[in-house]
Amino acid sequence: MSKPTDAELKTALRRAMIMKENNQDPDFLAKCLLNHHYRLSYLQDILLAADRYLNHGMAELEHTKLLHMIDKAKQAEEHTAKLDHFDFGLD
To answer: Residue 15 is part of which domain span?
Structure first.
């Protein structure tokens, strides 16, 4: 399956927002598209941070940035799943 163009994605996201706002999403397609698009942005940030980490000789600063991006993605996942996370500092 080919990747949608920027214009196609923009159109689909716009339509999905309209569907959600008007409660016209009986099969939850709009909800799924919007949620996956939101989550994908965090995963793309992780990919970029991982690539920088590996291509900069696994530098400590890049490692810290990668860990930060992973944490942000986890927080976004918990937020969209409506999960409560309690960090007791034991990780």
So the answer is: 7-80
